[in-house]
Write a structure and sequence with these properties.
Number of strands: 0
Helix content: over 70%
Low-confidence stretches: none
Largest sheet: none
Shape: elongated
Structural class: mainly alpha
Length: 91
């Protein structure tokens, strides 16, 4: 049982790192494409949330933190993809 938890925790950490990197990349790209500042407030809020996650990565050993952070990043990524799609469609 213990090994399964450690393995699951390791996979979650790897997934979090991947999500963190891809979400950061998307956030950067959306900032660039949002030239008319249509989404500036939402982008700033996501920027703040992203920075908070980065500063609290030391909590990665906590499974509850991992789960909540993964959910937050997944939601951010989904919203950023939607924004990017809208920005590119109207360009």
């Amino acid at each position: 049982m213990m090994n399964h938890t450690i393995m699951n925790n390791t996979k979650m950490k790897e997934y979090l790192e991947e999500l963190f990197e891809t979400t950061g990349d998307l956030l950067y790209r959306v900032r660039i494409y949002d030239k008319d500042l249509q989404n500036s407030e939402e982008i700033m809020a996501m920027d703040d949330a992203y920075s908070t996650i980065e500063k609290s990565k030391w909590m990665m050993h906590n499974e509850i933190w991992l789960e909540k952070t993964i959910d937050k990043l997944k939601n951010m990524r989904y919203r950023l993809l939607t924004m990017m799609e809208n920005l590119l469609y109207t360009a």
